[in-house]
Input
Amino acid sequence: MEIRAEEISAIIKKQIEDFGREVEVSETGTIISVGDGIARIHGLDKAMSGELLEFPGGTMGMVLNLEEDNVGAAILGDAEHIKEGDTVKRTEQIVQVPVGEALIGRVVNGIGIPIDGKGDIQTDTYSQVEIKAPGIVSRKSVHEPMQTGLKAIDSMVPIGRGQRELIIGDRQTGKTAVATDTIINQKGNGVVCIYVAIGQKRSTVAQVVEKLRQQGAMDYTIVVS
Output
């Protein structure tokens, strides 16, 4: 078998031309303490307030406190597998969530990642989590009622659209039922409802979602769990 120097030279040149070297550089820190969903991290000197951090296992976190020798971050997810000495990576992105009509009918977690098994949310519009709320003067005043569908509430303590109302009571007294009945009663009124169930058991959230779906309320509802 004859070896030709020209062919070898051409092959080497081709490989050199096609050679690509990609280096990923990221700033990392080390967890020095963790507990109650809060982690203290050393080594993230350039971290920004409100920045998204990546913990082991794909769990995300949000920078809250910027101190002289460490940063405090809230863990946005399951923290049982996170321990002292673990490495945390910066993303160099402020925490933001997807917004828009693409979220209607979906179940997402606290940072807008879908958890209903229906695929990604198709939207290019995002909003930062920490933003300044509009001032009182620029807000539209409460000028029309929002019917809950419960005669006792609508007659004695009517709720205005855009108003805050606290539902308080002991466990198993019907707080969730009042909220879900109010959502169901908004059908056909052009109201987008957001049901937030952070910290609730998945089985409980699944029951609420199924009830809303049976009543056709998921067509205008977003569930955050």
